[in-house]
Prior knowledge:
mainly alpha, Arc Repressor Mutant, subunit A, 4 strands, MGMT family protein, DNA damage, WH-like_DNA-bd_sf, ATL_DNA_repair, MethylDNA_cys_MeTrfase_DNAb
Amino acid sequence: MQNNNSGADEEFKARVYTLIGAIPKGKVAAYGQLAKMAGAQNQSRAVGRLLKNLPEGSSLPWHRVINSQGKISFALNSDKYKQQRQLLEAEGVEFQNNKIRLKTYQWLAYE
Length: 111
C-alpha cells in the first residue's frame, strides 16, 4: 500500500490483522489470499511488510501465513523458519518436502 493515504493504510492494516486473527488453528493462508480478502488484490508484499513489523509480543498467529506455493517464506533452516514450522506442526499441519498441501490446510473463510 502506498503511504500517501495513511487512513487507507490503517484500514488495510486493521483488515489484514483481523483476517490473520481469524485463521483457525491447523489452517494456513497465503499473503496474496489475505491481501485479496482485505480488498487490496496484488498487495501480498504489503501483507508481508505488516507481518514483518508486528509489534513485539503480538498474539496474532503470524505463523499461519505462508506463500502461495505452500512454503514458509523464511530461509530454509533459519531460526524463524524452524520456529514457524514448529508452531504449524504443533497445530497438526503436515509438511511434505518443506511444503504444505494447500488443498488440505488452506483456510477458506466460508468454512
